[in-house]
Design brief:
By secondary structure, the chain is an alpha/beta fold. It contains 20 helices and ten strands. The strands form two sheets. It has a six-stranded mixed beta sheet, with helices on both faces. Helix 1 runs antiparallel to helix 2, helix 5 runs antiparallel to helix 9 and helix 8 runs antiparallel to helix 9. It is elongated, with a radius of gyration of 35 Å. The structure holds adenosine-5'-triphosphate. Adenosine-5'-triphosphate (ATP) binds next to helix 11. It is found in: Cell inner membrane. It holds the Pfam family ABC_tran. It is a multi-pass membrane protein.
Length: about 575
C-alpha cells in the first residue's frame, strides 16, 4: 500500500469528514427538538440538518470512490510486481512449486486482496475515531447510560477475540484449497490428450471435486465464525438499545435526565450500531486479506535471479549488428564460445543421487560436440548447468573461461541458443514463437532462418502465414514442426553457443538430413553441443563425450570410441541405429 498512501489518506480523510458530519447531526436534532419544545422557529435548524445530511452523504460517496480506486491501484501494483517476480524466479524454485497454485496466487489471492486490503483498513481508521467521538459525546450526555451501553458492547469484544484467529485460519485454508484446485486443473489441462486417451476423466474429475470440496469446507468454516461474530455484534447492540431505553426511560421519569438528551443518546447509539457491525466485518476481512497477503508474500520470498543489463532486444540487436566487435558489456569474447566443466558435482536436491559426479570436459570454440549415454546419464543436466538453471554443488562450469555464476544471467543466456528436448512452443502466432528469443530479428534474416530450418513450406501452407496462431503449447502443429520451430528460434538468436537436446528425434528422414546440414553449417561458425541419439549426428561430431551415471566415461571421435569404449560400442549397436541390435558379439 505504501506507493498509494496518498490515495488511502485522501479516501480516509473524506470518509472521516463525512462521519464527523454524521456525528454533529444528533446534536442538531437535539437542538431542533429543544426549539420545537420551546415553540420557537425551526426552519433554519431543519435546513441546517438537511445540509449536514447531504454534505455527509457526498463526502462519504467521494471517500468510497477514492478508496475503491486506491484498492484497484494497490492490486494492480501487486499483480505487476508479482508477475515480474514470477518470471525472475530461479528454475529450481518453480520446479518445486505447482504452476496452478502460483497462478491462483496471482489471480485469486490478489482478488481477495482487492476486497480486503484498502477498504477494511480505511473503514477501521474511520470507525475508531467516530466510535471514540460518539462514546465521549454519549458520556457528556449521560454517564450512566454510557456505562450500560459499554457493558452490553463488551460481548462483541469477547466474540471478536475468539473468532478472529479462527476466521483467519479458515480463510487461509480456503485460499490454499483454491490454489490446490488451480494446481489440479493445470495438471489435467496440461496433459488433456493423455487424460482422455487413458480414459481417466472420471478419476481426474473426482480429484478436482475433492479440491473444490476442501475450498467449500474451509469457506463454510470461515463463514460460520463470521456469522458468530456478526450475530454477537448485532445482539449486543440490540441489548444495549433495550437497556438504554429501559434505564433511560426510568431516568427521564425520575427527572435525572430529559427527553431530548435521551433522544440524542439513542441517536448516537443508532449511529454506533453500523460502526460496530463494520468493525466486526473489518476484523473478518482483514483476516482473509492477511491470509491472501501471506500467500502473495511467499512468492515474494521465493529465490529469484537478479535483473540487470539491457533488455533482450537491445542485447540481441547489439549482438547481431556487430558480431566482430565486443557485442555487449560483459561478453568477454565475441564469436563462438568455449565451454569447460571442471570437476562438477551436482544433485537436483539434497538427498537425491547426484546427477553429475566429478564431470570434467572442455569444448573449444567452433565445432560440434555430441553427448551420448544411457537415459538418465546426466546429458540434459550439462545444458541446465551451462544455462545456469541450476548451479553445481562443487566444481565450476566455465563459458569463455569465466564461471557462469559470474555472468549476469541475461547476458549469459543471450549468448546461447537452446533447443530443449520437448521443443516447447508457446500459445500465440508462429512469428511470436520464432521471435521469442530475438525480438529484433526480422526481414531477410528471418527468411534465411526459415529456409535453413525447413519451415518455408509450413509458412506457405498456413492460412495466415507467420501470423497463424499455433494453439496452446503449439498443439495445432506436428511434433516435427515444433522441433523445426524450436531450432529456428535458437538460430535466430545468432548464438555463440548452440545447445540441441535430441532436437531431431521427431523429424522424418528428409527433414533430418536437411537439418543435419543446417546444424553442421552452424557448427562451422559457432560452438554446438548436442545430446545425440542418432548415429548420423554422432558420426558428424568433432568429439563425443560418453556419459554414464553422472560421470564422463570417455571422450573421443566416433572411430576412436568404437574401438576404445565398450559402452559406446553397445550404444552404437543399439540406441543410435534404427535397425534392431544384432546378437551380442
Ligand atoms: N528437475 C529435476 N529434478 C530432479 N531430478 C532430475 C531433474 N532433472 C533430471 N533429474 C534426474 O537427474 C538425472 C540425470 O537427468 P538428465 O535429464 O540429465 O539425463 P539424460 O542423460 O539427459 O537422460 P535422457 O537421455 O533420458 O534425456 C536423472 O536421474 C533424472 O531423473
Amino acid at each position: 500500500m505504501r506507493p498509494h498512501l496518498a490515495g488511502v489518506l485522501t479516501g480516509v480523510s473524506l470518509g472521516l469528514l463525512g462521519s464527523l458530519l454524521a456525528l454533529v447531526q444528533p446534536l442538531a436534532a437535539k437542538r431542533l427538538v429543544d426549539e420545537l419544545d420551546g415553540g420557537r422557529a425551526t426552519a433554519g435548524w431543519i435546513l441546517l440538518l438537511s445540509a449536514l445530511v447531504l454534505l455527509g452523504a457526498v463526502l462519504a460517496a467521494a471517500g468510497q470512490y477514492v478508496l475503491e480506486r486506491t484498492s484497484e491501484a494497490v492490486v494492480h501494483t501487486t499483480r505487476r510486481e508479482l508477475t515480474a517476480r514470477l518470471l525472475r524466479l530461479r528454475v529450481p524454485a518453480v520446479e518445486r512449486a505447482e504452476p496452478g497454485d502460483l497462478i491462483s496466487r496471482v489471480t485469486s489471492d490478489t482478488t481477495v486482496l482487492r476486497q480486503t486490503a484498502v477498504q477494511p483498513v480505511a473503514s477501521a481508521v474511520v470507525c475508531v475515531p467516530v466510535l471514540v467521538g460518539a462514546v465521549v459525546l454519549m458520556g457528556l450526555l449521560d454517564l450512566v447510560l454510557l456505562g450500560v451501553t459499554l457493558g452490553a458492547l463488551g460481548l462483541v469484544a469477547v466474540a471478536v477475540t475468539v473468532t478472529a484467529p479462527r476466521i483467519g485460519r479458515a480463510a487461509g485454508e480456503a485460499q490454499e484449497a483454491v490454489g490446490a484446485m488451480g494446481a489440479a486443473l493445470e495438471r489435467v489441462l496440461g496433459a488433456f490428450r493423455t487424460v482422455k486417451a487413458a480414459g481417466a476423466e472420471r478419476e481426474e474429475t473426482a480429484r478436482l471435486h475433492r479440491t473444490a470440496a476442501d475450498a467449500r469446507r474451509a469457506g463454510l468454516r470461515a463463514a460460520g465464525w463470521e456469522a458468530v461474530s456478526g450475530t454477537a455484534g448485532a445482539v449486543s447492540v440490540q441489548i444495549a438499545f433495550l437497556l438504554v431505553l429501559g434505564v433511560g426511560g426510568a431516568r427521564v421519569a425520575s427527572g435525572a435526565t430529559d427527553v431530548s438528551e435521551l433522544v440524542a443518546f439513542l441517536l448516537y447509539l443508532f449511529s454506533l450500531a453500523p460502526r460496530v457491525h463494520q468493525l466486526v466485518d473489518v476484523v473478518g476481512q482483514l483476516q482473509a486479506g492477511g491470509a491472501a497477503a501471506l500467500r502473495v508474500a511467499e512468492v515474494e520470498r521465493m529465490p529469484a535471479e537478479r535483473v540487470d543489463g539491457p533488455p533482450l532486444h537491445a542485447l540481441h540487436a547489439l549482438h547481431a549488428l556487430s558480431p566482430s566487435a565486443p557485442a555487449f558489456a560483459g561478453a568477454r569474447r565475441p564469436g563462438p564460445a568455449t565451454v569447460a566443466f571442471d570437476r562438477v558435482g551436482f544433485a537436483y536436491r539434497p538427498g537425491l543421487p547426484p546427477a553429475h559426479r566429478e564431470v570434467s570436459f572442455t569444448v573449444p570454440a567452433r565445432g560440434m560436440t555430441a553427448f551420448v549415454g544411457p537415459s538418465g546419464a546426466g546429458k540434459t543436466t550439462v545444458f541446465s548447468l551451462i544455462e545456469r538453471f541450476h548451479e553445481p554443488d562443487s566444481g565450476r562450469v566455465l563459458l569463455d573461461g569465466r564461471d557462469v555464476r559470474e555472468w549476469p544471467p541475461a547476458e549469459l543466456r543471450a549468448a546461447i541458443g537452446y533447443v530443449e528436448q520437448d521443443s516447447p512452443v508457446l500459445a500465440g502466432t508462429l512469428r511470436d514463437n520464432l521471435l521469442l528469443g530475438a525480438p529484433a530479428a526480422a526481414g531477410a534474416r528471418l527468411g534465411e532462418v526459415l529456409r535453413r530450418a525447413r519451415l518455408e513450406a509450413l509458412v506457405a501452407r498456413l492460412p495466415q502465414g507467420l501470423d497463424t496462431p499455433v494453439g496452446h503449447r503449439g498443439d495445432r502443429l506436428s511434433g516435427g514442426e515444433r522441433q523445426r520451430i524450436a531450432i529456428a528460434r535458437a538460430l535466430l538468436r545468432a548464438p555463440r553457443l548452440l545447445l540441441l537436446d535430441e532436437a531431431t528425434s521427431q523429424l522424418d528422414a528428409a527433414n533430418e538430413a536437411a537439418l543435419r546440414e543446417t546444424v553442421a553449417d552452424a557448427a562451422r561458425r559457432t560452438t554446438v553441443l548436442v545430446v545425440a541419439h542418432r548415429l548420423s549426428t554422432v558420426a558428424a561430431a568433432d568429439r563425443i563425450v560418453v556419459m554414464e551415471e553422472g560421470r564422463v566415461r570417455a571422450v573421443g571421435t566416433h572411430a576412436e570410441l568404437l574401438s576404445a569404449d565398450a559402452l559406446y560400442r553397445e550404444l552404437a549397436a543399439t540406441q543410435f541405429l534404427s535397425a534392431p541390435p544384432g546378437p551380442p558379439s
